[in-house]
Backbone:
């Protein structure tokens, strides 16, 4: 089974919910707390993410970074993971 | 800047000499739209450039498009020029405001005709206010050069490009239909004698070695906008050292004629005729209308002198003359409009009337 | 959720050609996605250093704050004229204009038509959300019949206000138009299609084929007074029947 995950820049997120609607796994939901701009932000609520990148594609604020379980053969060439933090 | 000229002269129309000078100044792009009495510029360039240079010459769909192509190409760092006549030049004002704000060097040409409205195709100087006071919206100025001969139509192309690029702002050659259409002897500036430097601010594609360049006139924060305004005003102050004018017999003159462009030629003739009649008449010809040579006019203003400003409009430059004179001398105005050119005889009558009114001694 | 990423590989991140400046757009606005995909293609094609963009007047007036390429901000409606100026003096660079419906299809109609008619080798990206977003929701040339806006408060009456203009079909008739398509950014599938269209356009520009024109039918949650999800739904139900996504002019060699 493919597993993946997302890191959401919650201070950038404006809570538009487009990612939530586009997630085939229903892995995302709006937070109950708000960010500094006053928006409820998207967060991963289930561990069934497949890393399909749908959420990131439709995110207008480019707030979502997606990771996926590396295929065994490719594992050695994983890029740096320091890009985005929540 | 000393321009190098051909050793032998040519007989050319003002508009054509200007276009030829643009090719020789290594202009990289021209965008324009036909309008009388300046269409020869576009015609000359579309005929000559394909044979002689790699420059872009494009007939745009309007003056509005032309000036915005100038914005784009000038912003991309090219040496660019457009030309038009009064009604078309009005259409460019929005773009010129943006260009002034974004500090893009470019050379503009307005071969003026009579107005307002569609007006007439005959020569006039009715766009003085538009040219020297900004013209479009917001606080800005452009450099304004007023040629009075075919020679200056050619020379001011070089001078205009140089000033525009040095000060990062538009320079305008403000001619009129007569200067544009008439034929005269001209020593053309030599090709390649105007140096060109690449601009580090231009949008040419961002190499990794620098931050992105962007050309904009938008500043939403008032403090940032004001700092841009202050920067522009500072630049205009520095520009004052480029003031240029020509003086004829002003030292001993009782009556000083002030005129630019074509009317300055009329006024030097008036001066000769008046001198023959024993009247002490001199002429000041502002060459840069912006920056206006206020200091020299102020220095000539004394209570025993009279100024007469002669223009082909209802009295526009005379306001700047009055500001410079600042009440120290009487300032009169004589003008013709509608494409009418004042004759030396007309102006001489005015000069004689002023001499009588002010009891100016005939020597 | 706590998820370990050490054993995973990065599969999607914001393109490097997009700056880190947070966007001023309203939540759910299609501009953000359009910006991102445009920059993503530029990133992937490795043409960042050779691309110059032109931003319009309208909501995307600040596009140059987000797109990390050399940019010019043009006067209202004149983006394609400015782009023409840039492309003519830098013919080997990639040039795009990014314009809204008021900019491209109202005040800039003449420039749009003639830029395409000359077949300028540029990409024109046209965001059509049927409203003037930046100035607060006034009627656009592309506002739908009957659509209520702040300047058509009783709905757009086509008898007096004109019918919504199909700019993309109009310019597709011009020989200078090489590739003309209508896309959207509201679903992952739509975003993937748009990305292909942008890439094809830059490839065509490289070969100096003529003008490529991509309309992106988009939403305006604030102007339409809806949530982002409602606005996308409304767009599908109301905009798409009139502005139907799909290719409008595709040259034989691209098929």
Residues:
């Amino acid at each position: 089974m493919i597993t993946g995950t997302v890191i959401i820049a919650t201070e950038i997120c404006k809570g538009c919910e487009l990612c939530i609607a586009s997630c085939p796994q229903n892995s995302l939901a709006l937070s109950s707390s708000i960010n500094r701009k006053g928006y409820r932000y998207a967060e991963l609520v289930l561990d069934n993410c497949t890393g399909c990148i749908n959420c990131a594609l439709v995110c207008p604020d480019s707030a979502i970074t997606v990771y996926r379980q590396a295929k065994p053969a490719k594992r050695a060439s994983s890029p740096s993971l320091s890009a985005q933090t929540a | 800047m000393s321009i190098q000229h051909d050793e032998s002269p040519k007989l050319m129309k003002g508009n054509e000499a200007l276009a030829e000078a643009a090719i020789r100044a290594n202009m990289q792009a021209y965008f324009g739209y036909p309008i009388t009495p300046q269409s020869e510029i576009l015609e000359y360039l579309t005929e000559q450039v394909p044979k002689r240079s790699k420059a872009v010459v494009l007939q745009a769909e309007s003056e509005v498009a032309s000036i915005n192509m100038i914005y784009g190409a000038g912003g991309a760092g090219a040496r660019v020029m457009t030309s038009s006549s009064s009604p078309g030049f009005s259409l460019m004002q929005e773009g010129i405001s943006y260009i002034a704000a974004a500090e893009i060097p470019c050379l503009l040409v307005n071969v003026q005709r009579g107005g307002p409205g569609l007006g007439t195709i005959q020569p006039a100087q009715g766009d003085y206010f538009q040219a020297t006071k900004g013209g479009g919206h917001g606080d800005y100025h452009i450099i304004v050069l007023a040629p009075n001969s075919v020679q200056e139509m050619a020379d001011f192309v070089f001078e205009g490009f140089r000033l525009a690029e040095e000060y990062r702002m538009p320079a305008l050659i403000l001619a009129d239909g007569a200067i544009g259409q008439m034929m005269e002897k001209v020593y053309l500036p030599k090709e390649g004698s105007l140096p060109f430097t690449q601009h580090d601010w231009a949008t040419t594609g961002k190499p990794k070695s620098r931050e992105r360049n962007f050309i904009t006139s938008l500043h939403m924060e008032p403090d940032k906008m004001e700092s841009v305004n202050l920067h522009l005003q500072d630049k205009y102050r520095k520009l004052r050292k480029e003031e240029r004018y020509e003086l004829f017999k002003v030292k001993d003159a009782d009556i000083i004629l002030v005129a630019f462009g074509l009317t300055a030629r009329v006024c030097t003739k008036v001066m000769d005729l008046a001198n023959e009649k024993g009247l002490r008449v001199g002429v000041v010809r502002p060459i840069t209308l912006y920056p206006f040579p206020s200091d020299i006019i102020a220095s000539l203003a004394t209570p025993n002198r009279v100024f007469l400003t002669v223009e082909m409009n209802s009295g526009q430059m005379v306001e700047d003359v009055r500001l410079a004179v600042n009440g120290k001398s009487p300032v009169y105005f004589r003008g013709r409009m509608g494409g009418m050119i004042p004759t030396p005889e007309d102006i001489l009558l005015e000069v004689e009337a002023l001499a009588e009114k002010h009891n100016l001694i005939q020597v | 959720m706590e998820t370990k990423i050490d054993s995973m590989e990065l599969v999607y991140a914001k393109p490097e050609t997009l700056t880190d400046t947070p966007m001023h757009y309203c939540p759910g606005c299609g501009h953000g996605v359009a910006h991102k995909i445009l920059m993503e293609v530029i990133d992937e094609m490795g043409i960042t250093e050779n691309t110059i963009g032109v931003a319009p007047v309208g909501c995307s007036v600040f596009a140059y704050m987000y797109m990390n390429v050399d940019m010019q901000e043009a006067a209202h409606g004149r983006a394609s004229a400015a782009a023409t100026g840039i492309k003519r003096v830098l013919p080997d660079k990639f040039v795009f204009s990014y314009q809204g419906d008021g900019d491209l299809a109202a005040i800039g109609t003449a420039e749009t038509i003639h830029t395409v008619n000359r077949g300028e080798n540029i990409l024109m990206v046209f965001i059509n959300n049927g409203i003037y977003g930046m100035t607060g929701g006034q009627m656009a040339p592309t506002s739908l019949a009957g659509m209520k806006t702040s300047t058509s408060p009783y709905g757009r009456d086509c008898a007096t206000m004109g019918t919504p203009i199909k700019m993309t079909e109009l310019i597709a008739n011009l020989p200078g138009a090489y590739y003309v398509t209508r896309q959207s950014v509201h679903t992952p599938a739509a975003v993937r299609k748009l990305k292909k269209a942008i890439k094809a356009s830059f490839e065509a520009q490289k070969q100096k084929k003529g003008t490529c024109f991509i309309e992106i039918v988009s939403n305006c949650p604030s102007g339409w007074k809806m949530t982002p999800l409602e606005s996308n739904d409304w767009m599908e139900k109301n905009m798409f029947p009139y502005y139907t996504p799909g290719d409008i002019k595709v040259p034989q060699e691209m098929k």
Notes: The domain at 30-250 of chain C is CATH 3.40.50.970 (Rossmann fold).
